[in-house]
Each structure stands twice: as structure tokens, then as C-alpha cells.
Amino acid sequence: MSLLDSYAAQLDDLKQHGNLRQFTSNVQQGRYIKIHQHQMLNLASNDYLGLASDTQLHEQFFDETPNQFRVMSASSSRLLTGNFPEYAQLETSLSQAFHERSALLFNSGYHMNIGILPALSDSRTLILADKLVHASMIDGIRLSTAKYVRYRHNDLPHLAQLLKKYHQDDAFDRIIVVTESIFSMDGDETDLAELVQIKRQFSKVMLYVDEAHAIGVRGQQGLGCAEQYGVIDEIDFLVGTFGKALASVGGYLICHAIIRDYLINSMRPLIFSTAQPPICMAWTNFIFQKVLNLNLQRQHLHKISQSLQQVVRAQGFDCPSTSHIVPVIIGESQKTVDKAKQLQQAGFYIMPVRPPTVPKNGSRLRICLTTQITQADLDQLAILL
Ligand SMILES: *Cc1c(COP(=O)(O)O)cnc(C)c1O
Question: Confidence band (pLDDT; 50, 70, 90) for 24?
Fold first, then answer.
């Protein structure tokens, strides 16, 4: 038997259950995506504000950025020679927007989530995490030496109950509560005001909130749900990614200055990985300034999101979403794949999401709305759902 046989058997098994993943090459143009010469409306994009596909923005950025500042590699970590001025510029922009709190940048949201939690935790730390947090946070928890307990998805009374139980346990010096604001698969959201109320009752508790799907999209200035709920100063670790609505790449943390200094001295993915190319930092800063002023676009996204949620519910599907991520939960994987194929043939690029990304029997169509989608598009889609 060859060493490859067991891998091949597992791939066969995935295929038989409709769960095999493959790369698909595609060409994107504005609100459309073309796959195998078939053009479809892109309803699977994280480019929530349409900024990544805005070619005029690219031109404006390069016009404003002379050749000598188009530095394509940092060539080392920030602690060695990689600390170009572009990092401090972006961190200063973030600090100014986020009430003068400290900001720290990471190569990606994934790096951020696998790095911060292990650095902050020891064996006297308890992490209480929402059942549905993103894989990157799960991996961060696994890499840490903290004890780890999950609470039922978006069930804050359950969280409060667990906090009461563990807060009096002398085994723990601190408890870190880990959640997302808008959840990537259900499109529902944590009531951050309530979460902060709960935290105030317990002196050992710190909050870690991932705004990957909310940054750019929520709040008057697009600073996320923390801005919308008025709790920017209350979240100990406010994190997000530039890879989605911000049309760039990288992760950020908003925190106390002491935490920032501590992470610079302890966070392995920050210390041992080459920093992002300075030009990416400059581009992120350019985009971030624009995003602060896109409130009309955010309002449009909110309006069409509510409209689609209503359509999905009217068709009899469970729809937990309160955001621009709208799942149509079908259940069985093959049925979901077939439905996605049918919608794609009709010109709507919607992707099926299957286990292990979502729970067993939770296969779904995951519709992601962007500001480039119109009500007329949704009216056409409604007929096909
Ligand atoms: C996409 C995502 C990440 C990862 O961010 P990247 O910058 O793409 O690595 C982290 N957390 C959540 C909730 C995400 O959806």
C-alpha cells in the first residue's frame, strides 16, 4: 500500500458526501465574476463596500504614491529592519479614529487570532468562547495554555451563567470572553452593549471581539459594531481584518498601550514573520480614510440586507441573519450544492457552505451582499430561491 492511499481514500469520501473542496479560477470585474466564460452577479464577495473592485481608486492611489514609496517588501519583521514609516502612519490613523486607544497591525486576521490569545494566556487563564467563533480563534485557543470552555452560540445569558460559576474559581486570574460581532456563517450579531454590561459585573473579565465582517460596514464612520453600540472604549481587545470591506490585507488590534507593548514582546506571529509590504500599509491607510466617509453606502447595504432577510424568511427558510451576510440554510450538502449550481446557471454567483465549515446538517447557501447590489437584483433572485 502506498503512503498516499489513505489520503486518497479520504478525498474520495469527501467527494461522495458532496464535501470536496477545490480551487476555481475566476475573473472579477466590478460586480460580476466570470467562471469558465460564464458571467454572474457576484454574491459571494467580502468586498462589502465595492472598494476592491473600484479601479479608479487604484489609479488615484498610484497617482498619489511616487515610485520611491512603492516598497513591495519589508524584508524582515518590524522588530528587525522592517518597521517602515507606513506602519506608524496607519496605526496613528487607527488610534485617531478609535478614541486615541493604541493600535497594532498584523500580517493577516488569521495571524492576529492565532497569535494574540496564546500571548495573553497562561494556565491561570480561562477562555470562554462563543460556539461559532471563526477557525482562526479556535486555532489561537488551541495554541494557548488556557483552559477553554464554549458557550452556546450568541447566548449571553448562558455566558453570564458560566461567568458566575468560574469567576469565583481561584484557579483563574483572568477570564477572556471571545466572540465575533457579526458572525461569518449565520450573519447574526452579538449585542455588544449587553456583553459590556455583563463584563462590568465581573472584575476578572476581559473582552475579545472580532469585527472582521463589521469593520467598514457598521457605525457612522464604519468603525464596526463597537462604534454602532457605543462601546469602543469597553472592549479590551477589539480586532478586525483589512481583507474584507477594507479592500486590502492584514489585521489590526485596538487595545490599551500596555497590551500593545506586551504583544510586541511576546506574540510569536508578530515577532517571527516578515512584516507586510509597506505599500500594502499605505494602501490600507488610503482606503481607511475613504471608508470613514462612506455612510451613504453603508445605509444602502443595510437596506438591501433587510430586504433579502425578509425574502428568505418569506420562502420559509430559517434566517438568523441581521446583517449583509444572509444564509439560506438548506441542511443536506448535496441538495445545497445542487441549488447553488442552479442559481449560478441563472446568473447569480452564490456559494454553498458545507461541513466542517458549518455544523453537520447545516449546509447552506451563503449570500454576501455588497454596495454594488441593487434592489432590482434581489427582486430577480427572490423568484429563484
Ligand atoms: C476572514 C476572517 C478572519 C481572517 O482574516 P484574514 O485577514 O483573512 O486572515 C478572522 N476572523 C474572522 C471572523 C473572519 O471572518
Answer: confident
Q: Does 178 contact ligand 1 (Cβ within 6 A)? A: no
Q: Where are the domains of the chain?
A: 18-49+294-384, 68-291
- Entry pTM: 0.96
**Would you give the DSSP letter of residue 335?**
H
Topology of domain 18-49+294-384, CATH: Aspartate Aminotransferase, domain 1 (3.90.1150)
Q: How far is the centre of ligand 1, averaged over its atoms, from the C-alpha of 122 (Å)? A: 24
Q: What does the pLDDT look like over 323-382, one tens digit per residue?
A: 999 999 999 989 999 999 999 999 999 999 988 888 889 999 999 999 999 999 999 999
CA dist 227 → 190, 221, 340, 355 (Å): 13, 8, 35, 33
Q: Residues 245, 47: contact at Cβ < 8 Å?
A: yes
As beta bridge partners, residue 325 has 368
Section 90-117 average pLDDT: 98
Cβ of 113 closer than 6 Å to ligand 1, yes or no, is yes
- 250 φ/ψ sector (left φ>0, alpha ψ -120 to 50, else beta): left
**Strand ranges for the chain from DSSP E:** 27-29, 32-35, 38-42, 102-106, 125-130, 147-151, 174-180, 205-210, 237-241, 251-255, 325-331, 348-349, 351-353, 363-368
* 212 Cα: distance to centroid of ligand 1 (angstroms): 6
Q: Do domains 18-49+294-384 and 68-291 have the same CATH topology?
A: no
- Please state which of the four CATH numbers 3.40.50.1950, 2.40.160.20, 3.40.640.10, 1.10.340.30 is assigned to the domain occupying 68-291: 3.40.640.10
* pLDDT of 17 above 90: no
Atom of ligand 1 nearest to the CA of 180: 13
Residue 165 to residue 149: CA distance in whole angstroms:
12
Residue among 181, 184, 239, 249 to mutate when testing ligand 1 (max atoms within 8 A of CB): 184
Q: Is any atom of ligand 1 closer than 6 Å to the C-beta of 109?
A: yes
Atom 6, ligand 1: residue with shortest CA distance: 109
